[in-house]
Design brief:
With 456 residues, the chain is mainly α. It has 20 helices and two strands.
């Protein structure tokens, strides 16, 4: 019976793919195919120029500087990225003026790729001082981050318009299952290559070579997005800019979902790039091992995503989030205990993150669209993203001040010595507990409202 059930579950995934991408019940099947292709291209180039490789590019640029300078710049980059996220609040003032936004969004995306994939990669070898390099790097980073924030909500509204409720859950489930596989394969392959480049003394040029396929993926993403149908947006009533930015405050149910994400995001962004730098410089793990761990995410994701989907079905979105966030404390605790001698804990940490993270990811995939009104959706999505980025910015800011205040000081805990880039892993545990408790409060509130609506 167990084998039969597994076969049924496997076939159901193929049926979900057929319904989502080939059943042309609304004439948008082709758009959804191009949407997921563009999404996977975005995942691909992000894994070639972002994450550990972005941190490595910064460390190469800062080569020769002390740890404090490195920590300060890494903290500034993290803070700036989240601070720019606050500009999403004004995105509706720009995007709602355009009845059709597809061409504008594609142009912005192309400019983003030029800056993020091409130009910023050359900063470490510019014939200028270290301080000048940092300024140039930050200016380029600010510009392409600003482009991302201004266009993000408009992209979301455009793309979700091709995902009716009938296939939306299937689409997110498929993307969340396949994306980790793509990320794992690309990141691991690239890491092996960078390890070879580092051993040969040409690490910088290795990072630059990775940007060639990244650029190709970026071009393919734009081509795929250009073939996606743009929906007719719900006409928004003419309101003044201040009212447009405060509109979400008139929808308490939507605010509750935003509150959950803000609490989580505040703690999730404590560690920033500090811990990545710690793993590279102090624990001295290879790029191949760090990224190679993501290979484990492939079988684990295939196993646990259906399980978490069933948990959501049997319990609820908020109950599932409450459970998942408590379980997700374990990776942070293990990271805190990771040293050069206990590096195996970092491996276990990644495995636990792969097991429990999907429970959070699935819920958060749906949260921006929960309880959202039909009109002025760009305003609501922008508000959601702005609050999310504000919480992340505050978390990153608190972490930066904490790291700067501690400097090179160490902590003695139960007879063991820990440096600040380890200790910051304990801070998110507090917000994970708070997220779990808040989710349960929201769950109870939702149940009371449902009972009142049923009686009414």
């Amino acid at each position: 019976m167990k084998l039969k059930q597994k076969i049924v579950n496997l076939l159901s995934h193929f049926e979900s793919v057929r319904i989502t991408f080939f059943d042309n019940f609304d004439g948008l099947a082709s758009s959804r195919r191009n949407l997921i292709l563009g999404s996977f291209c975005g995942t691909s180039f992000s894994n070639l120029v972002g994450g550990i490789f972005f941190t490595s590019l910064i460390l190469l640029m800062l080569e020769g500087t002390d740890t404090v300078t490195q920590n300060n710049f890494l903290g500034t980059v993290s803070m700036m990225g989240f601070a720019l996220g606050l500009t999403q609040l004004i995105a509706p003032l720009i995007m709602e003026r355009f009845p059709k936004r597809k061409k504008l969004l594609l142009i912005l995306r192309a400019f983003y790729h030029l800056l993020n994939i091409v130009l910023i990669g050359f900063v470490p070898i510019l014939p200028v001082s270290s301080l000048a390099k940092r300024w140039i790097f930050m200016i380029i980073y600010v510009i392409f981050s600003l482009i991302t924030q201004i266009s993000a909500s408009a992209f979301s509204v455009w793309h979700v318009g091709d995902l009716p409720n009938r296939v939306r859950a299937n689409y997110f489930s498929i993307v969340n299952m396949v994306s980790p596989i793509i990320s794992s394969v690309i990141a691991t392959s690239a890491s092996f290559f960078i390890d070879i480049a580092t051993a040969g003394g040409w690490q910088f040029w290795g990072l630059m070579i990775l940007r060639v396929p990244a650029l190709l993926f970026g071009i393919l993403e734009i081509i795929a997005f250009s073939k996606i149908e743009e929906p007719d947006y719900e006409p928004a009533p003419k309101i003044n800019p201040i009212k447009m930015m405060t509109l979400p405050f008139t929808t308490p149910r939507y605010l509750l979902t935003v509150l959950i994400v803000c609490i989580y995001s505040f703690g999730a962004n404590f560690t920033g790039q500090y811990f990545t730098a710690y793993i590279l410089e102090d624990v001295k793990l290879s790029y191949a091992l760090i990224s190679g761990l993501s290979i484990l995410n492939i079988p684990i994701s295939l196993l646990v995503y259906p399980i978490w989907s069933k948990v959501i079905g049997r319990l609820s979105w908020m109950k599932t989030l409450s459970i998942a966030t408590i379980l997700y404390m374990s990776p942070y605790i293990l990271n805190f205990l990771t040293t050069a001698d206990t590096w195996v804990l970092f491996v276990i940490s990644n495995i636990t993150a792969f097991l429990f993270g999907p429970g959070i990811t699935l819920v958060f995939s749906n949260i921006p669209y929960m309880n959202i009104p039909a009109t002025n959706q760009t305003s609501y999505i922008s508000f959601y993203s702005t609050c999310n980025n504000l919480a992340a910015f505050l978390g990153s800011t608190v972490c930066r001040f904490f790291v700067e205040a501690m400097g090179t000081n160490t902590f003695n805990i139960l007879g063991s010595t820990f440096q600040v880039r380890q200790v910051i892993n304990l801070l998110p545990c507090c917000t994970l507990i708070l997220t779990s408790l808040t989710a349960m409060v929201v769950e109870r509130s939702n149940k009371k409202r449902e009972l009142l609506e049923a009686k009414g």
